[in-house]
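3.2 Worked example (two chains)
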Amino acid sequence: MTALTAGQRLPLATLGVGTSFTVQVNCTLGGTDITAFGLKDGKLSDDRYMVFFNQPKSPEGALALTAQGVDTAFSVNLAALPADITEVYFTATHDTTPVGQAGALSVSLGSATFDVKPHLKAEKAVMLVRLYRHQGDWRLATVAQGFDGGLDALVRHFGGEVAEAAAPAAAPAPTPVNLKKERQRVLLEKAEREQPQLVSLIKAASVSLEKRGLDDARYRVKLVLDISGSMYDEYRSGSVQALAERALALAARLDDDGEVEVYLFGVRAQRKGAMSLGNVGGFVQRMNIELEGGTHYSPVMTMVREDARKEGHDLPTLVLFITDGGSSNRPAVEKQMIEASSEPIFWKFMGIEAGRVDFDFLEKLDDLKGRRVDNADFFRVPAPIRIPDGELFELLVNELDSWQRDAKQQGILR
């Protein structure tokens, strides 16, 4: 069996399963409820897709509880799930005792096992693993995130309703749960446990977003990194890793998953997978980058746009595009920017100024004519990169609010 770690995201095909398989949860803490939640865009919009001891299968049987006890099992048929069910969470909850007090708590799927117990402290409600659609395929994410409260708290977390016990007429109504703020709180708690150095960055990103009225905004965040040879010093010094961590801090405030899809470009374009709280430490070094002898924006822009279309338009995309020079084949890039101005994507270009650098082309993209809306912003920073975090986040979200307003007026955003 392959041992998984928290924060991993991998295609189900790599685990040796097809569209029908079994998810098994081993938990030795008596009284623990194991539940599967089928969600639409992050919400339990249909409570028939909450599968647990009191409702052992979904309407069409695609999710079914088949065994209970120390070893709880669910049968899963992804092909039978409705198309609007975009993710499935498997969870563990206990009404009185922290789930982490279990002698053992693990999830098995195909050829892999995820030991959840080492990642828990005092949580009574824990999201164990998540299945989700990604570019037309299904993937597994190891989560191990939780918060105080039992099953009721978890249902509210996913946007469902919980019947309240009768209360005296004079009693105040319960405070509605803000699903986005609750998820952000969970992410912040995870950062405090696993990546404490990021907590101050996440808070700084929050301040910049709130200043622009974007405190409730939701975006997918993508990080695009230049790997031309002239970037050597920035990679060697750790500046690119530091920028990646700041991109992740911004994603923790904008994206429910708190992850960043990473792309590289030089002569060609490359996808490098998702960066998350679970793997951010040393992420750039682990990419084993080989620098290239050219700078071509267009191939990676095509790749980002294709991926955004496959992921769907339920969320807009914020692209953090970092480079230290201009692009070859500039007419192709201008054409891309004009076409992309009708898509829910905002491009933030950051130029690293080392020596005699010509950023005239990036400045032209910032003010490019012929676009449906202004879908880009550009700023420059001197090398070595020593800009204060508060100032950097202000620059990273500059014009995002005005683009969001204009894109809604033009019908680009819902």
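3.2.1 Second chain
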Amino acid sequence: MTEAQKQEILTLKSKGNSYRRIAVLLSLPENTVKSFLRREHKQSDKSGICRNCNKKLELIPKHRAKTFCSDNCRITYWRKMKKGRDINENISRAI
């Protein structure tokens, strides 16, 4: 896949086209389009922002991307997630 095709895929997807339509327009297999967009999305997730406090993170080249700025943020985030999950479980049990 050429760089031009990659850019075209991103452009078409941002305009709301489906995987199948993009594949037909560019004469590529549908799974190739899906795989490329999935990989591209994973790369964009490494934006360097703390998941808890939205503080900019210092990314070290050739290291795994950080997701939290500190242990305190990590613990706080997961406690919030657990609390939200417990509430949803209680609601589903009541129904």
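3.3 Remarks
The two ends are 50 Å apart (CA to CA).
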